[in-house]
Amino acid sequence: MSPLLELRGLGVRYRTDRGEVTAVRDVDLVLEAGETLGLAGESGCGKSTLAMSVLRLLPKSARVDGEVLLDGEDVVTMGWGRLRAVRWARASVVFQGAMHALNPVRRVGEQIAEPIRLHGGTARVADLLDQVELPAAKARSYPHELSGGQKQRIMIAMALACDPKLVIADEPTTALDVIVQAQVLGVLSRLVAEQGIGLVMISHDLSVLASTCDRLAVMRHGRIVEQGPARSVIAAPTHPHTQALAAAFPVVGDPAFRQVEPDEVRESTPLLRAEGLRVDYRGRGGVVSAVKGVDLEIGSGEIVALVGESGSGKTTTARALLGLRPPTAGRVLFEGADLPTSSKGLREYRRQVQLVLQDPTSALNPRHTVYESVAEGLRIHRVPGDEAALVADALAKAELRPPEEFFPVLPHELSGGQRQRVVIAGALALGPRLLVADEPVASLDASVRGEILALLLRLRRELGLAALIITHDLGLAWSIADRVAVMHEGVLVEQGTVEQVLLDPSHEYTRRLLAAVPSTTP
Amino acid sequence: MTSIVWQRRRAAVSSTWREFTRNRGGLVGLVVLGVVVVLALLAPLVTDATGLDVTKAAGDRWQPPSGEYWFGTDHTGRSVLLLTWWGSRISLLIGLTATVLSVAIGTLVGVTAAHFGGWASAGLMWVTNFFLVLPSLVLAIALSTVLPRGIGTIVLAIGVTSWASSARLVRAQTLSVEARPFIERAKVLGGGHAHVIGRHVLPAVLPLVFVNTTLTVANAIVAEATLSFLGLGDPSMVSWGSMLRAANLHGAVSQRAWWFLLPPGLGVVVIVLAFTLVGRALETVLNPRLRGDR
């Protein structure tokens, strides 16, 4: 009997304005029924193209070589009618980004029933919803009435609608919080085990794949560089790229990932302090408190991680600390003095405290060169001295060497990691004493995450730069922070040293967060 | 350092130009515009302005086109060719200055409303909507009746009544630029309102304003012709609108003097078409969202 899915010498090329671009080359893969395969790799490595080629969902500009055998039948040469019959009935897809893959103006029940009706079956929406652990009444909801996790479950129910033998899940949990992610992964694993479905799961996060898949394939530049049982690939990676990927997702509690020396944490004087900080938003539905009384202290030269799920108020806290949003109540003290409220005073304050945003691509004006972006702060503050030399110095501190070569470059010509370094250099040019970093590596590829974190640590060591790092990733906190503050629904539920909070959590919520973190050690 | 910046700007301009030349309609419009503008500028050098004076008119009344008078003569014996030629100067002058005024007000109001938000935005948008719902021609007529006659009045009347749509356009674009994270970064770096608007918002909004300008010129020229036709223009100046008014008043139709009606009318059509073609072409070049898959 032929395997469920077999790829033989698969290659995909895209025709673009600048000639042909090869996305996937020479891929051989075999998936037996009931098996789970994880496909790992960074953005642009071709993993999504590979997945879409299985159902021939590629754009018109794509050219496919080789064979894609689904139950022994070649998808590449299949007729249009046959392809329509195979799609969803034999193999289905859980698309990336459930927020955008659902039609916002139709009830989710109708959307789940759609493929069944197209394939001439009878709709059994309630049964499908039950399988993904949602109450049958949710079928009458519109997508905007559901949470991210619920929407993702609807997507899974949709994928299961026609009893496929193969499900392809493309980054199914990327935009979800850890606790929700754990629930969705649980549902997916259970269904695969119960119904004997073959699963191909795509992710950039090795720990997510490790907790759900039997086998792992690591892709780079369109090729599979390493393949094998999940446990051995993660425990003993042979290819350097796999090693880099594995190292990018630190395991909480593993001393190997702790980059801060215990004796490095020294006595420090308080630099920035929030007392009873409270921020309200006045919206149409009345007043919403995003931050409800937060006491937080960051010492000089200290790295504090503010951890929480999306919507927990951590970003609003950072905005208030930066003076971007006036607090409704409470105070923010910098070196013991209240935060200035005048625009002149705030301008002076901004030389001391700088922000690094999550997505470096949008944080840089696409029309400005690297030089202009880094010099922007210097010009605003009319910093005396040779501008070019100061810019070069800041770029060198952010490890962009030789700095002169980066001067005339526009942001789109840089890689994601380099862009984040430019943002950091722009902040460093002003010689700040505290850096507030909002998810500084969340939008970066795994292999450069470690480099950016190492840069933050080195800046602390060499310049005594303190940092407040806002993140949802507990592994990141474990790897570089001195202290951790856990935020939940606008309140700091727990704070203390990293070892104290992450190894011996005292609050229920911290425990739940830690339990939900996918682990590479099963 | 500045040389690098200039080099990049030159490259950007030349790539815009290359993209523009691919649009045949835009290129035709640009050539027509160029010819008209050059002719209008050369008018005092190659023709004699005394021919415009009714008392010094040399020809007979209502003469059809001939070798001597290519476009014939009007009711006072003046050459219609000469009138049309000189009329293009006024039409272009008023069209361009009124547009500059209109777009300047629109950009100022749009950027201010979007950047400051809150009460400033509410108030400014209220005024904008007021100008949008009011029939601008009626308002312009009222304005030019109250104010003393002259070019300045016409420019003011057209400029003050036609800025509302560009204000809304600029406001929308500013709002979308201000939502980008690099604006927040600029604020954290310590940049004030002037810095954010000058360095980030305006450069991103200007291409749109530029496109809007070329499209507004066409409207302003039509508005000028309308006001002059209604007798609200400067009586001492010849413009296409005032020529059509004279033709209408002195019975060009009953004289079957088509040569007095067609040249100014076609002049308006050609110049408006040329500006619109150029504007549309620029729009597709500067606004990549409109380019689509071609």
Can you tell me about this structure?
- The complex is a heterodimer of chains A (522) and B (294).
- Chain A has 522 residues and is α/β, with parallel strands linked by helices.
- Helices cover 36% and strands 26% of the residues of chain A.
- Chain A has 2 domains: 5-249, Rossmann fold (3-Layer(aba) Sandwich), CATH 3.40.50; 271-352 and 433-443 and 463-522, Rossmann fold.
- In chain A, helix 14 runs parallel beside helix 17 and helix 17 runs parallel beside helix 18 (446-463).
- The mean pLDDT of chain A is 85.
- With 294 residues, chain B is mostly helical.
- Helix content of chain B is 74%, strand content 0%.
- Chain B contains 11 helices and no strands.
- At the A-B interface, helix 12, helix 14 and helix 17 of A face helix 1, helix 8 and helix 9 of B.
Mind sketching the topology for me?
The complex is a heterodimer of chains A (522) and B (294).
Chain A: E1 5-16, E2 19-31, E3 36-40, H1 47-54, E4 62-70, E5 73-74, H2 80-86, E6 91-94, H3 98-101, H4 108-118, H5 125-131, H6 148-160, E7 166-170, H7 178-195, E8 198-203, H8 206-212, E9 215-220, E10 223-229, H9 230-235, H10 240-248, E11 270-283, E12 286-299, E13 303-307, H11 314-321, E14 329-334, E15 337-338, H12 343-349, E16 353-356, H13 360-363, H14 370-380, H15 387-397, H16 403-406, H17 416-428, E17 434-438, H18 446-463, E18 466-471, H19 474-480, E19 483-488, E20 491-497, H20 498-503, H21 508-516
Parallel strand pairs in A: 3-8, 3-9, 6-7, 7-8, 13-18, 13-19, 16-17, 17-18
Antiparallel strand pairs in A: 1-2, 1-4, 4-5, 9-10, 11-12, 11-14, 14-15, 19-20
Helix pairs in contact in A: 4-6, 5-6, 6-7, 7-21, 10-18, 14-15, 14-17, 15-17, 17-18
Chain B: H1 2-21, H2 24-46, H3 80-116, H4 118-133, H5 136-146, H6 151-161, H7 164-178, H8 181-188, H9 193-229, H10 240-249, H11 258-286
Helix pairs in contact in B: 2-3, 2-11, 3-4, 3-6, 3-7, 3-9, 3-11, 4-7, 5-6, 6-9, 7-9, 8-9, 9-10, 9-11, 10-11
